[in-house]
Amino acid sequence: MALCPTEFCVAQNALPDDPTPAPLHTTPLDRWHRQLGARMVPFAGYAMPVQYDLTGDLAARCKGGVMAEHLHTRTHAGLFDVSHMGQAMLTGPNVAMALETLVPGDIVGLKPGRQRYTLFTNPAGGIIDDLMVARLADDRLFLVVNASRKTIDFAHLAENLSETLTVMENRALLALQGSEAAAAMARLSPEAAALPFMGIAAIRIAGVDCLVSRSGYTGEDGFEISILAADAETIADALIQQPEVVPIGLGARDSLRLEAGLCLYGNDLDELTSPIEAGLTWVIGKRRKMNWDFPGGRAIRDQLDNGPVRCRVGIRPDGRAPARGQTTIVAQDGTEAGVITSGGFGPSVNGPIAMGYVRKDLAADGTRLNLIVRGKTIPATVVPLPFTPHRYIR
Amino acid sequence: MATKNADKRFTKEHEWVVLDGDIATVGITDHAQEQLGDLVHVELPDLEREVAEGESCAVVESVKAASDIYAPLAGKVVEINETIVEDPSIVNSDAEGEGWFFRLELDDPDVFEALMDQDAYDEFLETL
Asked: Is B54 on the interface with A (CB under 8 A)?
């Protein structure tokens, strides 16, 4: 058997223009992860924990490993280091209007203290990246973008906007996720625990200045906490001292987001995929649909009016064998149907799950398809997303 | 758990082999299961299949990824362990015992001796 410790990275970071060059960057928690028994793998140019072999008190809560970490996050709470992601501040008197020239979301209508999921689109209507935009003040937007795309995104912003872009390279980003995340957070900061879904505020936790939002990437309730790199261990320690919380690796982060039906840039989204095809029509602000004045607006409008050629759907393979990304999908009549873009095993679903793009006429829930896995045909069914219901606080 | 069997042989692809007459029992090593993490799916070769040395003939899937299992020696598949198909976690809990994969009737049982013994495999792991 070929044991490749970087299989995860290869599978999940299969951007043709990203050869995951050595040497790897490290996050401010690199030493912290290793002390807790993390297995580190390369991901988007960073050494990241893929899973943990937990010991001591933490092992009593969760034995570690992708399966246990995934389930622990759903039933209790998990702490994720997502410091590899790009953080930046965009400032200027008309900053919201300026950003709207690059994204289809309603940013002008975003109130201070609120954040929103949006996309950088290209002139053809493809997706350059997906990101979170938070309105910290009238003249200040906080952006969080994908690690694998941050160089491209920040160059795109700098080229196209005259507003001041400050890339925050000296910061860490932690995510506390899970059904008991709020209970754990409440002990450290009742103010943070009281944030509404997609709310964001500057809050002091354990003596540290934090920028806390009520959001995440698991489908569970939770928080994302931006802090100075030097404060990362203080906050991470304070969080794992809570009895609900254990550290969680990228392996479970991926299976959690897949069960939640959330897209991973590079797998499910790319520059040749439109928001309509991706099922992300909802990110286009109501007001933005009056003028379609964002990159690719015309192409995206045409697609919305005429229907896209292909759609992102949820797929349940029959049986137990996972169908991974790049698996070919064939219609029952033998014609080409599409391709799986993210696939694996869902620990909470307790079975194989996948997302992929299929021809429009094959996208209805219940449609039977065939997957070609290692030369064998595995029947599968189109199912609604998410696989696991979202449990965001409302 | 894994017993340090003097008659057990190993490959660099992290399979173990035990020989009984001309029948070889094959599985993946404890090190391999540990590296793969939680297994969720196992595919075994068809009975009667003739496999060449080094031929891919089984697959294990962890939550993270799929990995091929190669035939450590040439022979015919005469038995497969259906219990690990039903419950792949047996491979995690007892890789070098109850978690065996398949049995081969070897074309040439003498080649078994050419595989690494436990000490050689342990030394090999040190180099990884």
From this structure: no
